[in-house]
Amino acid sequence: MAESRLSAMALTQHYLDRIAEVNPSLHAVIAVLPDALEQAAASDAAWQSGRPRGALEGIPVLVKDNVQVAGAPTTAGSPALLGVQPPDAFVVSRLRAAGAVILAKANLSEWANFRSTRSSSGWSTVGGQTANPYALDRNPSGSSSGSAAGVSAGLAALAVGTETDGSIVSPSSACGVVGIKPTAGLVSRTGIVPLSPVQDTAGPMAVSVADAAVLLTAMAAADSDDLSVLGIADDDHPDRSHGGIDYTAFLDPAALEGARIGIWRAASVGADAVTAALLDVAVGCLRSFGAVVIDPVELPGIEKVTEPEFDALNYEFKHGINAYLKYIAEFAVGPGQAPPGTLAELIEFNEVHAERVLARFGQEIFYAAEATTGNLADPVYLELRRAANRLATSAVETPTVEHKLDAIFSLTANPAWLTDYILGDHNVFGTSRPGAVTGWPTISVPFGYVAGLPVGVSFLGPHWSEPRLLALAYAFEQATNHRRPPNLLPTISVNR
C-alpha cells in the first residue's frame, strides 16, 4: 500500500469475496459491516495523501461478536441482543485510529461459552456452528471460534478475540493460528460483553507472531472507563497507563539463546501418544535453539483452582451481565427491540424461544449464575475469588521464581474433536487456566499436526512480560515454521 501496488479497496474486496465463497461452509462470520468498502476508500485516501493513520491503515480485521462495533448489533451470538446497536468498544476505536478496516463480526460460542455445561464450542443461535478449517466436521474450539477459523481460512488479515479462560489460545491451537492472551488490564474491556471483570481480556489472533504483535500494538492502551482488575493487575504500570508500545520492536529471532524455559508436562498427561510426542519434539527444538530447558517443572496445586474459579465466575457473570444489559438498553434500534434487562429476563427469553435458542443445548450455567447473589462484595464470592487467585498465583510463581524462568512452556490443547451436539466438547486437556486466573499473559503458536489437525504450544510469563514472550514466541516460530494453511476438507482420516 505504501508503494501504491495494492489498494485497501482491492484488499477488502478480496476478503469480501473470500467470505462469500467460504463462509457458507465455515460459519466463521456472523455479519459483514455494510460500510467496509467505504472504510477502505477512506484508507486509500489516507495513503494517497501521504498521511496514513497508523500501522493498520487499510488492513481488514474481524471482530468477535461480543465486542461492540458501531453500526452493527453486538449479539454475543444471541438473538436477545439483535435489536441493539451500541457504540464502538474502546479497543475498536483504537483499531479505527490505527487505520484498520472493520470488516465483519466473527461468530463465537454463544455468550462466550458460558451458558451450558454441555455446549458445542463455536455454536451460536445467530451464527450457527463454526467449523474447523482443517476438517469441517471438527470443532474449532471456543469461544473465539470465528476469529480463529476466519483468520486461518483467509477471511481477513487479522482478528480480535476475547478470553476468560482459554477462549483465545484454545481456538488458536485448534485452528492453527497465533493467539495472544494479554496481561489482564493491558487491553480495555469497555464495550465488551462481560463474563468476568477479573479474567476477561481481548487479544489479537493472526497467522504469524509478527502480525499479532502489530495488532496488539494498536489494541493496548489505557482507558479511564475500563473496569479495575480487582488486584490482579496494576493499573499504574507503564504498559497499562500509557500504551504506545510498539510490540514489533521485540521480535528477536535469537531470543531463545540462553532463555530459561520450564516445561509443564503434567498439563497434557492425558494426551494420546502422538500428541504427547509433539511436546518432546518441541522441547528438543528449544534446546537446539539455545534455550536452557528445565524439564519438567511442576505447578503445585493448579488442579485445585477449577472449582473456586468457576464458582466465582458465576457471581461475576451475573453481576456483569446485569450491568451490561442495563447499559445497552438505550441503544435499542426501535420500539420493541430492547434487550432483556437482567440475567433472569435473559433466561426467560431463552425459555420462550427454546425451540430455536435451546435447540442444541441448555442454559445450566445461566441457572447457576442466577442462583448467586451477583454481589462482588459478598463474603462467599470474595473467598472463592481469593482462593482461586491464591492457588493459581502460587502454582505459577513457584517454578518461575525457583528456576528463574523466562517462560513456562506447554502444549496448548488437544487436537480438534468431532463436533458433537449430544455429549458436547471433548476436551482432553488444556493449559490456559494458570494464565487466565492469575492474569499472566500467554502466547500460543502453531507447532505440529496430529492426523492433519494442528496443535499449538504456549509460552506463559509474568504480568507485563509481553515483550519477552513475543520475542520467545517469534524466535520459536521463525526457527520451526510449522504452520500449514488449511484446505477446508470435509473430514479427515485419523490414519493420515
Task: Describe this protein's structure.
- With 496 residues, the protein is α/β, with parallel strands linked by helices.
- It has a single domain, classed as Amidase signature (AS) domain (Amidase signature (AS) enzymes), CATH 3.90.1300.10.
- 35% of the residues lie in helices and 13% in strands.
- It has 15 helices and 13 strands.
- The protein has helices at residues 8-26, 36-48, 90-97, 145-152, 169-175, 209-219, 238-242, 273-288, 306-328, 343-352, 354-357, 364-370, 379-402, 433-438, 466-480; strands at residues 29-32, 60-64, 101-106, 123-124, 128-129, 158-163, 178-181, 201-206, 260-263, 292-294, 407-411, 442-450, 453-460.
- An 11-stranded mixed β-sheet has the order 1-3-2-6-8-7-12-13-11-9-10, with helices on both faces. The chain has a two-stranded antiparallel sheet with strand order 4-5.
- Helix 3 (90-97) links the parallel strand 2 (60-64) and strand 3.
- The longest helix is centred in the last third of the chain and has 24 residues, at 379-402.
- Residues 228-235 have low confidence and may be disordered.
Which spans of ≥5 residues are poorly predicted at pLDDT below 50? 228-235
- As an assembly, this protein is single chain
Report the principal-axis shape. Answer: globular
CATH architecture: Alpha-Beta Complex
Query: Would you identify the CATH H-level superfamily?
Result: Amidase signature (AS) domain
Number of domains: 1
Q: Biggest sheet: strands, sense, closure?
A: 11 strands, mixed
Mean pLDDT: 95
Distance between the termini: 41 Å
The strand line-up of the biggest sheet is 1-3-2-6-8-7-12-13-11-9-10
Task: Please count the helical segments.
Answer: 15
Rg result: 21 Å
Instruction: Please identify the top-level CATH class.
Output: Alpha Beta
SSE order, as H and E? Answer: HEHEHEEEHEHEEHHEHEHHHHHEHEEH
**Structural class per helix/strand content?**
alpha/beta
* Percent of sequence in beta strands: 5-15%
